């Protein structure tokens, strides 16, 4: 998930030290915790509980395409929060 948030393909080796990776995980956790409850539920279900879009869409009684669009919007919000962090700004713009 961290890879996707900073624009790398999944399972890409991320060039971070252990301390940097820990800091990034903390930033990610904080960003997710600031989401409204329904958005946090969607992210938890899809990314951490590994539920499929179809399965979660049925649970929420919404079309799969609507859920996919909401997921993308939520991840965009999280990505923006992470990218605005000074530590990440320094890493991205060296």
Folded structure, characterized:
The chain has 94 residues and is mainly α. It has a single domain, classed as Orthogonal Bundle (Arc Repressor Mutant, subunit A), CATH 1.10.10.10. It has 6 helices and no strands. The longest helix has 20 residues. The protein is elongated and about 45 Å long.
List keywords for this structure.
94 residues; Arc Repressor Mutant, subunit A; mainly alpha; 0% strand
SSE arrangement:
Layout: H1 2-5, H2 18-33, H3 37-48, H4 53-60, H5 64-83, H6 86-93
Helix pairs in contact: 2-5, 4-5
In short:
The protein has 94 residues and is mainly alpha-helical. It has helices at residues 2-5, 18-33, 37-48, 53-60, 64-83, 86-93.
Taken from the alpha-carbon principal axes, the silhouette is: elongated
The CATH class, by name, is Mainly Alpha
The CATH homologous superfamily is named Winged helix-like DNA-binding domain superfamily/Winged helix DNA-binding domain
Number of helices: 6
């Amino acid at each position: 998930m961290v890879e996707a948030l900073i624009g790398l393909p999944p399972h890409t080796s991320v060039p971070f030290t252990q301390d940097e990776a820990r800091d990034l995980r903390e930033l990610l956790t904080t960003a997710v915790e600031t989401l409204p409850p329904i958005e946090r539920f969607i992210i938890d279900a899809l990314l951490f509980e590994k539920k499929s879009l179809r399965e979660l869409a049925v649970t929420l009684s919404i079309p799969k395409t609507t859920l996919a669009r909401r997921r993308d919007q939520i991840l965009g919000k999280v990505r923006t929060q992470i990218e605005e962090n000074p530590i990440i700004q320094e890493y991205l713009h060296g």
